[in-house]
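During the reporting period the student researcher (J.K.) took over the structure-prediction task from the postdoctoral fellow and processed the backlog of single-chain submissions. One of the processed entries is reproduced below for the supervisory committee.
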Amino acid sequence: MAKHVGVKLPDDLITVLKGEKAVVVLATFSEKGLPHTTPIQSIYPKGLESILISIHKDHTGYHNMVWQKKVMLCLMDEGNIAYSILGRAGVVRAPSAVHPLMNIVRIDIIDIKSDRSVLTKVDAGIKWSYTSPEAEELSKSLMDELKELAVTL
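J.K. obtained the following structure tokens:
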């Protein structure tokens, strides 16, 4: 059963987000009401009440987010971490300083709920690796940009 946490990121979630290996699933809706999900791995907390993400400017999830504004993020990771975050999205940098096809979005938290189950526990989250040295360099540069903006925005 879901438990409402509030609007501030809990410590365990901040730890996972700052670990730079988290993947969240971004859920949006199109103007026609069609649901859409997008895995996001360029994500970093901005304080306790906002999250920054980097997303391709032509991605369907980005277009839906710009139109709809309200989004849902879902994150599950080892240690029985399971959260859903309702937020309001706003573009803060377009294009990214790192890559002209990427944009930076801030998601201001409206509500967080813990999705831990009494019947099961999360043993592992989504695990990923880089596809090439160039992909690693780009990903790390995008993460560095998010970290910088988390302080300066």
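The committee noted the following: The chain has a mean pLDDT of 95.
J.K. will present the remaining backlog at the next meeting.
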